[in-house]
Amino acid sequence: MSRAVRIVLEVLVLALAVWQVVDVGAAMWTRLDANFDLEWMEGATLITGQRAAAGLPFYTVPTADYIPFIYPPVYAWLLGVLSTVFPLGYTLGRSISIVGCVGTALALIAAARQEGARWPIAFGIGALFVGCYEESGTFYDLVRIDMLAMVSTAWALVLGRRAGNRAAVLSGVLLALGFATKHNMAAFGLPILLWRLREYGRADALRFAAASVVPALAFVVAMEVVTGGLFLRFLLEVPAQHGMVWTRALPNVKAGKIDGAQAELVRALPVVVGVGLLTAWWWVRGAPGRYWAAHLGLGLVLVSAMRGHQGGYLNVLIPMFWLMPIMLPLAEAALAGGSGWRCHLPLAFTALLAVQLWEGRGNLERYLPTAADRRAAAELIEELRGIDGPIAMPHAPWYPVLAGKEPSFALIALWDIDHEGGPFYRASHAVDRALVNGRWAALVLPDDKLGHGLKNAYRRDRALKARTFRTRTGWGVKFGSVWTPMPKGAERGRGRPPPSEEPEEEGSSAEDGGGAEEPSGGE
């Protein structure tokens, strides 16, 4: 009887998992070829790929034409390399992320199998990660670095748990690759190192350390030499000037609802969290449990800090969406077996997995581009093509490229450096000077809040003729008007007074319709 019940429950888990994967996969397919920003940093990320393809540096002193991001370059390098075969654009960038998402889900399935889960359960565990697509802000398939960084890090964690020289070396190399894609992924190396030291001995731990630290250090040194010391200034010094939003980093009660990163994680996988916490006493006592508990604890601290960091959006929770589901097979392995009530636990855990898969169904319709969005985007690009001269679109700097023009700076990158006391604060005044000097024939903006002396140098000339449309996730951007330089003789240059002299080349020796609560990016 129990065998029949187990088969029924496993078939139910498989059916729900397939449903989850197909639902998310269909959404990704619908979004894949949308030729506009689904999230406002997609186009700015494509510009880094364009620079890679052209052999231009990523990390330079900021100018009005280009301001570097605060990320490592691997995703941009991959975009540049693949653009020699495929057209550089949204479809290519999203394809990289989708492949990363698939690989990340497969890593979780491998981790579940490694901890003793049966194939139907392991597939269900992998589907739990896929089902957090909406809770991530639908960042799994965007032109962003997140999933490329996550796939190498996830496999580093899976291999880091395995015995053997090859597993130690591969885990270290993959972790170094994750670091070179998104540098905060390096934090997961410490639990792997300590666990391997305890379980496999000093020689094995040193082997992992050499495989991870040596290439990571070589990469940093090479980047520092090539960029004249600018690489670490952008990765470390610039974000160090950003503030913290503690109501996102720590639990808090707002309007009768508990908020903060921890609450967002619980709401994403409530059954998993409940089972994991209730059974933690048992599963953390074994070596596998200690390994994953260390990563869960570190991951919670890491994503909470990133969520609270100024600009941190839901995508920073992705590592925990991957780590949390592993608690289910750990709990079953620790508690199941024997006689009496414990022999029924596998059935109970399978049923709970089915409940979580059912509860995790999303409503993805609002994240999908419509036919009207696609037509409106095409109309906007055509209207940009008809503007004579250079165009600045700080909120979507890839759109001018689609219209056959040069890109301009990305607003999120300007916000990153526009902090008094930051290493490139004076360089941010280049934008002020460009506005005063009428650098662009037109600015296309969603509102009049750009600052930097905009209203004293440019005027709102007209509304866009193209139909308006909004980004589908992150910070909602909807363009509305065209601004042109004020006529000669009009009062110009007021607002934040730019310095009269050119800024020093700071650090130079010769570089991110759901609607967010604030502009997303920066993590």
Describe this structure in words.
The protein is mostly helical. The chain is globular. It has 23 helices and 6 strands. A hairpin with a 2-residue loop joins β1 (252-254) and β2 (257-259). The strands form 2 sheets. A 4-stranded mixed beta sheet has the order 3-4-6-5. Strands 1-2 form a two-stranded antiparallel ribbon. α6 packs antiparallel against α7 (165-181) and α7 runs parallel beside α9. It has helices spanning 2-32, 42-54, 74-82, 90-114, 119-131, 146-160, 165-181, 189-200, 202-226, 230-240, 246-249, 261-268, 270-278, 280-283, 287-308, 318-323, 327-335, 345-359, 371-385, 399-402, 411-417, 429-436, 454-457; strands at residues 252-254, 257-259, 391-392, 442-445, 458-463, 481-485.
Give a short synopsis of this structure.
By secondary structure, this protein is mainly alpha-helical. It has helices at residues 2-32, 42-54, 74-82, 90-114, 119-131, 146-160, 165-181, 189-200, 202-226, 230-240, 246-249, 261-268, 270-278, 280-283, 287-308, 318-323, 327-335, 345-359, 371-385, 399-402, 411-417, 429-436, 454-457, and strands spanning 252-254, 257-259, 391-392, 442-445, 458-463, 481-485.
Topology, pairings included?
Blueprint (H helix, E strand, L loop, with lengths): L1 H31 L9 H13 L19 H9 L7 H25 L4 H13 L14 H15 L4 H17 L7 H12 L1 H25 L3 H11 L5 H4 L2 E3 L2 E3 L1 H8 L1 H9 L1 H4 L3 H22 L9 H6 L3 H9 L9 H15 L11 H15 L5 E2 L6 H4 L8 H7 L11 H8 L5 E4 L8 H4 E6 L17 E5 L38
